[in-house]
Amino acid sequence: MPVVAILICHQLRLASCVHVLKVEFSGGLELLFSNERSHKLGVPPKIYGDTSSDTRPADITFLIHHLRDNRLKERVELFMEGGTLRPGILVLVNDTDWELEGEGEYALKEGDKIVFISTLRGG
Amino acid sequence: MPPRICALCATNKAMLKRPKTGQQICRDCFFYVFETEVHNTITQSNLFKPGDRVAIGASGGKTVKRNQQQYSMPLKILSYDELYGWTMDAIVSQVGKKNNCTFCGVFRRQALDRGAAMLGVDHIVTGHNADDIAETVLMNIMRGDIARLGRCTSICTQGEDTIKRSKPFKYAYEKEIVMYAYFKKLDYFSTECIYSPDAYRDLEAARPSAIIDIIHSGEAFEIREEVKATQKVQQTCKRCGYMSSNDLCKACTLLEGLERGMANSGITDRGRKKLEAEGPAPDNLRTIPFYSGAATIAVETVPDQVPS
Question: Where does the signal peptide begin and end (chain A) (predicted)?
């Protein structure tokens, strides 16, 4: 579980245990995140699946859930839908379209800049 | 994953996957193809003439005001409250979260023409993109609105007494517009609609080229002459002078419903019948200032109300 992984990290307090990322929201999406465009946050390099031996690198899918659980302040339905990112939100990994980087499966690295831009509007 | 190389210049790292073609291209090639395509759209349809006075139609708050300063352009702000006597908040409190898009869309469209008439411009450009137009094509097909289906794919529309309107981004995908703004550090805000958070489009996820395909289908639609002949003729609204295919334009119909406490009368047949059963509109009904079309420079005073 992602949450477990974070707890372990915090308990160990090892600098090497987290990747520090820069996360940015724009296009109106920042309104859901305390109206802050830029966020700094740490994620564990590896996260645990159902068993403790089942680990995978922390990826963007993990980040999206982590942001929802820890940073999102309102209207989750404008950020996520059906357990994934809402269609119409563009993601850039170090300024590159995430479609070229494996989308949700992109493994996060120290210093990565991840940008979420909403292209959604009402009718 | 090794960095992918741009499919166009074969030199730089690809930074964007084009939804239109699936091509993976670098930032510089993207600027070049995006700008060239919009430029070609503009020149091929002769959108502008030298000396044209052009207004850019935009909705939104803070960003538009910031844009005004960034580009040093004059800005005319029109509020729904000023034009119709109703704010969007007040409309939503009457009609709820479901049908308010109808009000917003109809009121916005008319506000744009009225604002342009006040400024005396020749031409309004709007930021409608390929995604918007594909959505409109589908909506008009589902509603069976063949009159609008014919119009909605035109890059440029101009009625007899309406101001010319055009959509230079007609073939530009929303994703590319947003990416362009991001790479160029332009101030962009998608004005997420707070009144109808579920209004969104997801055609692209299924198959990116679907958007252009739908626009082309809309363009290729031919309506049989016999059917065309049954279409209502465009006229002007008896109450406010705006173009309309009925005695009353859609905005006046919607406003009357709001004013008489029967907001649904402009949306459902049942609502309309209920309104009609209550008799004609009262004389003191609040109405929209009379619209005198493109020739007018300023519409300041409220003329005498035209009886409906």
Answer: 1-17
pLDDT tens per residue across span B16-70: 999 988 999 999 999 999 999 999 999 999 999 999 999 999 877 777 888 888 8
Co-location of B26 and B111 in the same domain: no
Which residue is closest to A120 within chain B, CA to CA?
Answer: B192
In the block, tokens 């994953």 appear at: B1
Which pLDDT does position B303 carry in this prediction? 40
| B190 with A120: Cβ contact below 8 A | yes
Examine residue B291 and state whether it is found in any structural domain, yes or no. Answer: no
Chain A residues with CB-CB distance to B134 below 8 A: none
Q: Do B130 and B31 belong to one domain?
A: no
Closest C-alpha to B239, from B291, B274, B279: B291
What is the ipTM, given to two decimal places? 0.83
Domains of chain A: 2-118 (3.10.20.30)
d(CA B263, CA B267): 8
Contact across the interface for A28 and B190, Cβ inside 8 Å: yes
pLDDT band, residue B306 (cuts 50/70/90): very low
The domain total for chain B is 2
Kindly state whether residues B157 and B183 are assigned to the same domain.
yes
Are the beta carbons of B192 and A120 separated by less than 8 Å? yes
A107 CB near a chain B CB, below 8 Å?
Answer: no
* Start-to-end Cα distance in chain A: 38
Instruction: Determine how many CB atoms are found less than 10 A away from the CB of residue A90.
Output: 22
Domain match, B116 and B21 both? no
Interface residue ranges in chain B relative to chain A, Cβ cutoff 8 Å: 1, 4, 13-17, 24, 101, 104-105, 135, 174-175, 178-179, 182-183, 188-202, 204-205
Q: Do B17 and A99 touch (CB under 8 A)?
A: yes
The model's pTM is: 0.83
Is there a single domain that holds both residue B5 and residue B102? no
Nearest neighbour of A27 by CB, restricted to B24, B104, B178: B178
B90: amino acid identity, one letter = A
Judged by CB atoms closer than 8 Å, whether chains meet at B190 and A92 is answered as: no
The neighbouring-strand residues paired with A6 are: none
DSSP B124: E
Q: Tell me the average pLDDT of chain A.
A: 84
Residue B197 has its nearest CB partner, among A26, A78, A102, at A78
Does residue B157 share a domain with residue B177?
Answer: yes
pLDDT over 50 at B305, yes or no:
no
| Cβ–Cβ under 8 Å, residues A109 and A80 | no
Say which DSSP state B76 is in: -
Which pLDDT tens digit goes with each residue over A60-80?
Answer: 999 999 999 999 998 888 899
Which tens digit of pLDDT belongs to each residue from B148-181? 888 888 898 876 667 899 999 999 999 999 999 9
